[in-house]
Every structure is written in C-alpha cells, then in structure tokens.
Amino acid sequence: MSFQSPLALIGLVLVPVLAGLYVLRERRRQSYASRFTAPALLPNLVDATPGWRRHLPLALFLVALAAMIVGVARPHATLRTSNRPDWRPRRVRRRLSWTGCPRSSGSA
Q: Which of 50, 62, 63, 81 is the most buried (most CB within 10 A)?
C-alpha cells in the first residue's frame, strides 16, 4: 500500500497527544475537586467514579480523527491479478432465472 500524500500521516502524531492531554486534564480535575472540598464531604458529593461511558465520546472522536487523517493521505493499493502480462479480466454475465416465479395466465 502506498499513499499519495504521505506527509499527511504526520498528523497521526496528534492522536496520542490529544489522548495524553485528556488524561492530564482528568488528573487535574480530580486534584482540583479535592483541593476545594473538605475531605470528609467528598464521599457524599460523588456516588461512584464515572464509568467507561464517560470516555467513549473522546475515544470515538480520536478513532474518527485517525481515519480522517489516513483518508487525507489518499491510500491506494495496486493489486496484480495474474502473472500473465496478456491476461485481461473476463466479463461475467449472469442471467436471471424465472423458474421460481408464478406465470401469469394472460387473462386479466
């Protein structure tokens, strides 16, 4: 596989950078909340830690961003179908079979 614009793949570096910034922001958010709240009141404010659904939108965004960056690089593949240089693909025609269809009697 080759790319028409391989320099566009440098943009894939952006994906782990954004993921790292998100992790950093989540850690700071937790420390920020504990800084301005009394430690005795913190269990009353938060019932449970957020589940995986909290991170799902960012994960989908990063996957879509990576797919768009690869798409901008315009990948293309050259497939060789035969070793013979004079080989040309043959057209295949299929005929529809009407054996299973009921015939009309012609008197309507």
A: 62
The tokens describing 102, both together, are 């009921």
With respect to residue 42, please indicate whether it lies within any of the assigned structural domains: yes
Residue 103 pLDDT class (50, 70, 90 cuts)? low
Summarised one tens digit per residue, pLDDT across range 23-54 is: 999 888 877 766 777 777 766 766 667 788 88
Cα dihedral 28, 33, 35, 36, rounded to 10, equals: 140
Range of the domain at 65: 2-76
Residue carrying structure tokens 């798409």: 71
69, 8 contact by CB (below 8 A): yes
- Measured over the CA atoms of residue 75, residue 58, residue 53 and residue 21, the dihedral's sign is positive
